[in-house]
Description:
Chain A has 432 residues and is an alpha/beta fold. Chain A has helices spanning 5-14, 37-46, 71-86, 101-104, 139-148, 173-184, 199-203, 206-214, 230-240, 248-251, 303-306, 309-319, 337-345, 348-355, 405-414, 420-423, and strands at 22-26, 29-33, 58-61, 91-93, 116-120, 133-136, 150-154, 158-164, 193-197, 223-225, 263-268, 275-277, 285-287, 298-301, 329-332, 358-359, 380-383, 399-402.
Amino acid sequence: MGLTLIEKILLKASGSKRLGDFIYANVDFCFGNDITAPLAVKQFYAAGFRKVFNTKRIAFVCDHFVPARDLKAANNVKLLREFSRKFKIRNFFDINNCGIEHAFLLETALFKPGDLIIGADSHTCTFGAIGVASFGVGSTDLAAVMKEGKVWLKVPQTIRFIYKGKLNRWVTGKDLILHTIGKIGVDGALYKVMEFTGPVIKRLGIEARFTMTNMAIEAGAKTGIVEPDEKTFSYLEKITRRKIKITEFMKRLKSDKDACYDRTVEIDVTGLEPQVALPHLPSNVKPVSSLRKVRLNQVVIGSCTNGRISDLQEAARIIKGKKIKKGLRVIIIPATPSIFMEAERRGLIKVFLEAGCVVSPPTCGPCLGGHCGILDDKEVALATTNRNFIGRMGSPKSFVYLSSPAVAAASAITGRITHPDEVADNCRRMYR
Amino acid sequence: MVIRGRVHKFGDDINTDDIIAAKYLDSQDRRFLGDKCMENIDPDFSSRVKKGDIIVAGKNFGCGSSREHAPWAIKGCGISLVIAKSFARIFYRNCINVGLPILVFYGTDDIKEGDLLEVDLAEGRIRNATQKKEYVSEKFPPFMCQIINKGGLINWVKKKARRSKR
């Protein structure tokens, strides 16, 4: 019997000939951030470990509470800096040479399609979009991987999602994944891998694929994955500025025709409207036009879900030449310094500033109610982020809606949840 | 090991932001995290918990982020065991790794707030002393029992490393 894409990677990582129920797999690359890694470091010390498995295959990315929001946050970054020095860990990333981990690490060329990655962050599943087996874990798991270079994994079953049909204008990766989570629920893929496939995915840009695999965790999935194709390799070469040597193994990174799936879900996207998730679950999804009366206090465009250059480009295309609604706070967060620079080069930052938005340095910040845009009681936000749980962006009495950058940008102009068609009739193909 | 405690009941999809809000994640102090446990959805929760109490919940408990601060917060406020219909994947791993006992049991609807439970963890037997009923939870796969029996992941890794050196 054939293997699914994830099974092929896990088989290679397990070093054995056949996959059992559980494997103790070799890890190609592991990382943590400024909230999960300090706990991992403490576990590492408490266990009395004296060496890391490899000084080049571990990374610490300071992205959640940076630039340090307070003394404790500064202290955690310092803890990681000192640990990195002590154990000669090469890849310690602080502000200026950093950014949101699930965007930034892609630029470092520290891993490639077909690798097994362990990250102490739930959105580690993002990297699945380039054909990596990428699993989120907690801090103790990270501490053990840092020591041994291995991780125990239950071999997961795969659900295949086939997207067919024609995408409407403004409908992209975020809408597809919100629609999918709305369909299957927040535990609809519990312990399973979501493999995104079909003609729509083939046509989708790599950054839109990242948005989809990023939110696989929001359906409870172990990870999301997409078969790497020519687009994947040319994208990686572009953002890492390095040539990729395509190995025989990389060429085989596809699910076999006779692979065994847990189930297959076919989704016809024809006629699908931009989607919005209502408070307080990402599965609470409705089409944008049914929410026109929802008034907003804040709009956030950024995060590991939608803070990439194509996201900022889409938002700027709608905002250009307009002013944001008076009284509304609009926060734009390029996910990494190089995305920020590219946005500057393309003139997007100017568009945002002239419209009255605020542009923040790269950080997870408001997405998890950390800093740089906390909501007060009864405030309502529309964000391009990934979670809208109670209190996610601040007050437990606030409300978070989730959408694509296009919907968020259109809503920034009107101050209420808005279909991009309503404000964007004069910006067709402006930048393309 | 037998755990005896009163039930605190929760619904479906209790997420890690409910369990411990992200603003507190710069702390690694278990007692502090324990004080803030469930703050967003039940502000006096931690003050009501008596040492040894048990959380009983619906499906998908612990969904959301990978923060290990969540099981630490639950342990930190004095909870000895979480029973749920199902657990989110990373939360489940974290509990096994840090030694917070959890049990998977589909019939949690039957258990009420304030019920007194006596739970034999090794056997997975749950006795509801208030309702005079007995239930049996799902068994852990043998592989995971190894980690649980070694007292968490770090000890398991240490023993494995020692064995491979021999």
